[in-house]
Design goal:
Layout: E1 24-36, E2 41-48, E3 51-58, H1 64-71, E4 78-87, E5 101-104, E6 107-112, H2 130-135, H3 137-142, H4 144-165, E7 170-171, E8 189-191, E9 199-201, H5 207-215, E10 220-228, E11 240-249, H6 253-272, E12 281-283, H7 284-291, E13 304-306, H8 308-311, H9 317-324, E14 328-334, H10 337-340, H11 343-354, E15 363-367, E16 370-372, H12 376-379, H13 383-390, E17 397-403, H14 405-422, E18 435-439, E19 444-447, E20 452-455, H15 470-473, E21 482-487, E22 490-497, H16 502-511, H17 516-530, E23 537-543, H18 544-552, H19 582-587
Parallel strand pairs: 3-5, 7-10, 12-18
Antiparallel strand pairs: 1-2, 1-4, 2-3, 4-5, 4-6, 8-9, 10-11, 11-23, 13-14, 14-17, 15-16, 15-17, 18-21, 19-20, 21-22, 22-23
């Protein structure tokens, strides 16, 4: 690292090596630990984000004042140390990059004393609870694992910028104070002082703006954008998050997929030293059929198999009832599960699937060539056909789902993941990277409780060109020009070719129950722009937070965001959200209901 512009240090704490021996250096950082070896000999580990260097304060080599200063140091004090670099007398420390050398303290300047902290950033044996870490985030971010994640995030972002800049993309910022438009989640609203009673919305994504940029002739746009959705946080989702947003003109689906595949190959090569090779493509219908989800984890088996025809004549009412109602029966083969899973565990799985709408979990075991336990007496006549279809072996367990396709896929898809975790079938972090493009999504889904169609992605997604005529006759059959990128069962990117025809956009709005007046009120500026000559265009949004989560080996999105919110949307460090001065509300012409006031 070039520290030539710094007057407080000549090198970082991770920089000095054996070739620096004999030269003078000045280091600055935090006291990681101190060790006193008898009279007149003190060792200090000095830390910054680049590494750790051992400092030696030796009464034979430094003044009494310097030795006294060293003796008075405590953990997390901020100091600067000047002196000669020398090779370690007792041999190198292989755990440190600087382990061949030490800095002999000729002068120690205390830059800031630290109070006793609520926890020490390098205490590996007693990591504090997350609430305490978030409340004292500055200390938490000093922890070496957090420093590595921050550095990783920065590295990934720079790779994204370099990759896209080299391919003719312009980085363009879009507004954070926008018009409220329906994009699938609740908006965060910002009141306007200058226009009382009216509100901005924080953007859920830059979707409409990037389409406007394509109509404006920008041709290739990107932005590392902040996005806001007023929805409940979870382990892999925050109300405030960051995405790489990009859009391209005069492209088809495969053009976007090719560009983003190249981008991810470069990111993984740079950050993980991994060659991803070709990324396979799977239709949405196949993903649901085989894995029960549109973001399948393909690192292990336990695939869903349709056994509807095989079990239709068994007379088992759970199966025949589902089939008579137009549903399906699917099965998962659990290799050796008959021996490894107890009755209590299987009963627990039956309770587990009920939360996803399933009525229960019929099952059988194959023992000595025959079905045993569970619903064996019903399925024994179909044993040979099931054994052939599922490639069964003695000791296997077979679990079934029988209901509507939607419920079966959801319940068995979730069960598949739980079984994989319980049976240790998921490879350790970094051992395997299964990327997959999922394509050919339905354009629309019917919401029974609302009695209308809704977009599976968003209302600006285009149908595949040959599918457009079906909008008037069979909307459920229309396939969209959308695509998602999945890694190890997690969606990390999603996008589509957009509607560039104003007439087609109005047809889709009509199917979604958005009439001409509402469309004009909410999207008039987009519809007007489309009429002024819109090129065919498409794009994608890449979840930066999720990408860093995967590369960094954490399953908590708060670990890769410098200042995240809790599950309740609170910032424990700053105390946000908080009450504001009544005068501020008066300026905004806002009055709170009594029940809305804290306390």
């Amino acid at each position: 690292m070039d520290t030539s512009g710094s007057s407080l240090r000549t090198h970082t704490c991770g920089e000095l090596r054996a070739e620096h021996a004999g030269a003078d250096a000045t280091l600055a950082g935090w006291v990681d630990s101190t060790r006193r070896h008898g009279e007149g000999l003190i060792f200090i580990d000095l830390r910054d984000r680049f590494g750790v260097t051992q400092i030696v304060a030796d009464g034979d080599d430094c003044s009494p004042e310097t030795l006294a200063t060293a003796d008075g140091l405590h953990g997390e004090d901020v100091i600067a140390v000047t002196g000669p670099v020398r090779r370690r007398d007792g041999g190198a420390n292989p755990r440190l990059a600087t382990g061949e050398i030490e800095l002999v303290a000729r002068q120690i300047r205390v830059l800031n004393r630290a109070d006793h902290p609520p926890f020490f950033p390098t205490d590996k044996d007693s990591l504090p609870n997350e609430e305490l870490r978030l409340r004292h985030r500055a200390l938490d971010l000093r922890r070496p694992p957090m420093q590595r994640l921050l550095a990783l995030r920065s590295r990934v972002a720079q790779t994204m910028r370099r990759h896209l800049d080299a391919r003719g993309f312009l980085e363009v910022e879009t507004p954070n104070l926008c018009k409220s438009t329906p994009e699938g989640a609740r908006d965060f609203l910002v009141p306007s002082r200058l226009q009382p009673g009216e509100f901005y919305a924080l953007p859920q994504s830059p979707q409409i703006f990037k389409q406007i940029l394509m109509i404006a002739g920008v041709d290739r746009y990107f932005q590392i954008a902040r996005c806001f959705r007023d929805e409940d946080p979870r382990a892999d989702r925050q109300a405030e998050f960051t995405q790489l947003d990009l859009e391209m003109s005069f492209v088809r689906r495969d053009d976007v997929i090719a560009l983003v595949s190249d981008l991810f190959r470069e990111i993984w090569r740079d950050a993980a030293g991994v060659d991803l090779g070709d990324i396979p493509v799977m239709p949405y219908a196949e993903a649901l059929s085989r894995f029960g989800t549109d973001r399948p984890d393909t690192r292990f088996g336990l695939e869903l198999a349709d056994v509807s025809e095989i079990v239709a004549s068994t007379g088992f009412r759970v199966f025949t009832g589902a089939l008579d109602a137009g549903g399906v029966v699917k099965a998962i083969r659990v290799p050796a599960g008959g021996a490894s899973l107890t009755r209590k565990q299987i009963d627990g799985y039956a309770e587990f699937v009920k939360q996803f709408g399933a009525g229960g979990l019929p099952y059988v075991k194959l023992e000595q060539g025959a079905f045993a336990t569970g619903v064996a007496k019903f399925l024994e006549p179909a044993r040979e056909a099931l054994a052939a279809a599922l490639d069964l072996e003695d000791g296997d367990l077979v679990v079934f789902g029988a209901d509507t396709a939607k419920i079966v896929h959801r319940a068995l898809g979730e069960l598949r993941l739980k079984l994989a975790r319980d049976l240790n079938l998921i490879p350790p972090h970094g051992e395997r990277w299964d990327f997959l493009w999922v394509v050919d999504f339905p354009l629309l889904e019917y919401i029974e409780e609302l009695g209308r169609w809704d977009s599976l992605h968003h209302p600006f997604t285009a149908p595949k060109p040959e599918q457009a005529p079906l909008l008037d006759t069979d909307p459920a059959a229309v396939i969209s020009d959308a695509y998602d990128l999945v890694v190890n069962g997690s969606e990390v990117a999603g996008g589509s070719v957009r509607i560039h025809s104003p007439a087609l956009q109005e047809r889709v709005f009509g199917l979604l129950g958005i009439g001409p007046d509402e469309a004009r009120a909410k999207f008039g500026f987009l519809l007007d722009a489309l009429r002024h000559g819109a090129p065919p265009h498409g794009g994608i949004a890449v979840g930066l937070d999720r990408v860093v989560m995967h590369l960094g080996g954490t399953d908590n999105i708060r670990d890769v965001i410098a200042f995240p919110k809790t599950q309740t949307g609170a910032d424990l460090m700053s105390g946000a959200p908080s009450a504001v001065d009544p005068a501020q509300l008066d300026e905004l012409h806002i009055a709170l209901k009594p029940a809305d006031r804290r306390g």
